[in-house]
Design goal:
Layout lengths: L1 H30 L10 H9 L5 H8 L4 H22 L8 E3 L6 E3 H13 L4 E10 L4 E9 L5 H20 L4 E9 L5 E2 L1
Parallel strand pairs: 4-5
Antiparallel strand pairs: 1-2, 3-4, 5-6
Helix pairs in contact: 1-4
């Protein structure tokens, strides 16, 4: 468990550094010949004018094409936006880790809860596999269930068991906090989905 957290932190820091580097490289290229280029602080204009590689004339002399500077700027900006997007994807995804129970100070690990629901559903005839997950917040959790059925199974019968036994027991267990559920049935050979 600590290795995953360390790796996640290192990934975020690398993405942050990459995005910051690409953004600081692209900004002088962008604002050098724009309307706001004259209104920049002196240290910024010195930064963007010092290196010959950021001057559009240098790009034109090097490549023979005036559009090369714009193309390089666009590529750098796209890379910066990609790095920023990947950084945002590293953040929390709304997965519930612990569920508060009715007695004060008592919590339940979400993995234990989803494992119990999964084992109940796997015991039903015709169920090939089950995947469960808790999304949302601890106070307003949403249980996502994906049930893969064999050809012999009846989704209606399994949905009846789910709605009359498994979900009401889960809701009573997590009371007073509400529990919403999303169930997805998939048949094994054809991949037909029934919601």
């Amino acid at each position: 468990m600590p290795v995953d957290r360390t790796r996640r932190i290192v990934n975020r820091l690398v993405l942050l550094a990459t995005g910051a580097l690409l953004l600081t490289t692209a900004l002088p290229l962008l604002v050098r010949n724009t309307v706001i280029g004259d209104r920049l602080p002196t240290w910024w204009t010195a930064l963007s004018g010092r290196g010959r590689w950021v001057a559009p004339q240098a790009w034109e002399a090097w490549t023979g094409r005036p559009a090369a500077g714009a193309a390089v700027t666009a590529v750098v900006i796209l890379l910066a936006l990609t790095a920023g997007g990947l950084l945002l994807l590293q953040g929390p995804r709304g997965t519930v880790r612990r569920l508060p129970l009715a007695s004060p100070g008592t919590v339940l690990e979400a993995r234990a809860f989803t494992a119990a629901v999964s084992s109940r559903l796997r015991a039903l005839p015709g169920v090939h596999s089950v995947r469960t997950g808790l999304r949302g917040t601890a106070d307003r959790a949403r249980l996502r269930i994906r049930v893969v059925l064999d050809d012999t199974a009846s989704p209606r019968e399994i949905l009846t068991v789910l709605s009359t036994d498994v979900l009401p027991e889960s809701r009573v267990f997590l009371a007073p906090h509400p529990l919403a559920a999303e169930v997805r049935f998939i048949t094994r050979p054809g991949g037909r989905r029934v919601r």
